[in-house]
Amino acid sequence: MIDTSTNLTSLISSSSSSFSNGLPGNLLSRRLFFLRDIQVLELLVASFVFIAIHSLRQGKRHGLPIWPVLGMLPSLMAAVRTNTYEWITDVLCRQNGTFRFRGPWFSSLNCVVTADPRNVEHLLKTKFSNFPKGQFFHNTVHDLLGDGIFSADDEIWQRQRKAASIEFHSAKFRQLTTESLLELVHGRLLTVLENAVTNSLSIDLQDILLRLTFDNVCMIAFGVDPGCLSPGLPEIPFAKAFEDATEATVLRFISPTCIWKAMRYLDLGTEKKLKISIQGVDKFAEDVIDTRKKELSLQTDDCKKQKSDLLTVFMKLKDENGRPFSDKFLRDICVNFILAGRDTSSVALSWFFWLLDSHPTAEEKILGEICRIIRDRRDLDTKDKEPMVFRPEEIKKMDYLQAALSEALRLYPSVPVDHKEVVEDDKFPDGTELKKGTKVIYAMYAMGRMKEIWGEDCREFKPERWLRDGRFMSESAYKFTAFNGGPRLCLGKDFAYYQMKFVAASILYRYHVNVVKDHPVMPKLALTMYMKHGLKVNLLNRRKSELDKYF
Ligand code: HEM
User: Fold this and answer.
1) Is the dihedral of CA 82, 83, 88, 90 positive or negative?
2) Structural element, H or E, at residue 158
3) Which residues does the annotation place in the binding site for heme?
4) Which of 344, 346, 442, 527 to probe ligand 1 with, by most ligand atoms within 8 A of CB?
5) pTM of the model
6) ipTM of the prediction
7) In Å, how far are 79, 136, 313 from 109, measured between CA atoms?
């Protein structure tokens, strides 16, 4: 509209100049009337279109307009350009915690969205078997995740969960995780950070932490170190293939199923990219599985002694028919664990460091806690010897740090929304009717920002809310949903806390982490809550005199 009237104005002014160039007066007035008619006509058309659109709109639900064909999609699309999670939170707060999203009829976006802890407990625990991940999720992720723990339901999920759970709680596995983390933090992470300090370089802390946790989870799942955090921060083909494959898989969730299936059939666009990146992931897995099989058949000392990674453990197990698991199934198991543990802890740490930058009192308290723990070491003679390596029992004692990390996860949960599918007609405790096949989204991000759950100060970063008499107190998994709850509670929760505390304490003891001024920080729309532009920081060495005040 604006452009057209601008054109009309310029047409009038060009007519005036024609007049000065000698156009007869009556011709001019006829032309001006004609132009005025055009403007009136334009206004009429615009009004008609406006009225037509508004009469076509089928009304409002939950304060959101519903459009023919598109449903509530236009409101969602507008939110995608700003902050989708805040938009969902806003709608949920206005609707007492639950609303029904109507997407276009051709999409897979129709769903019930909830942030009500009663409903979340109902779907994650009370009626667990009525809310599986479902066929839609399974079909969408199957090319990448196959039948691994993340995408499987029922018996296939149960078997893996049981075996992995035993493994996760074994002493040998704990030793593997703590040793591999120690090696990565002291052998690589701190070297990379020290290099940045020496050369006064700003770094993307999120990228570095993502590299750290990728190497770490590959050591746990496959028993191999891909070397993403090596000096020079190289691009590792397997890591790149994995990242590309997850990004392309996520795109399937927002495309109509028939479209991505057609693109897959024709080998086009993102589907072509997905196919190539999955080949990269498969090649890596194949090589590792082959090598491990050879090692195990030779029963080399190295293999017998050291290997307690998931691949080796599952290779020694048998399926329900007493046969060893197929290579494909072993690949699926490892790929799923990598997906689960790859970037959840690193993005949580990124949000934590960002929050700490604007909460110096919380940082002081963490430092005080770390220094008190060091002071209490029985063998005080090691106190001043570098490097300061925190021991597992010391990490356990860091209650305030655990509270601060939980608070960061409450406000910025690594998995911001999650999804289930209804098997049989059901009803939520809040009265919402659920028809068979309905998709249900539970919004962890929104749950951390609801006054009904956390009180008036729900948007503030207050680690103290997690402490009673100075000790960390966990919350109900249906109120603090960052790690999921019920039978599908995150298997890596204890390890993730250990990993995050170890990394955070090792960094904070040595450096001030200052976020670069005006660096834009916002969530990226993905399965995991990455910072869209990473986290640019400058590191400064902590002076010894600064730490001395805590001893
Ligand atoms: C801050 C760190 C972490 C957070 C916030 C987190 C959160 C979650 C969430 C929300 C789920 C449920 C996902 C779903 O069912 O759709 C989950 C599942 C899982 N997580 Fe974590 N996770 C973290 C770290 C880890 C780590 C480090 C590992 C492994 C090394 C891990 C292993 C798993 C596994 C295996 C599952 C699947 C459980 C199942 O379906 O039975 N997680 N996690």
Assistant:
1) negative
2) helix 154-168
3) 490
4) 344
5) 0.86
6) 0.98
7) 15, 11, 39
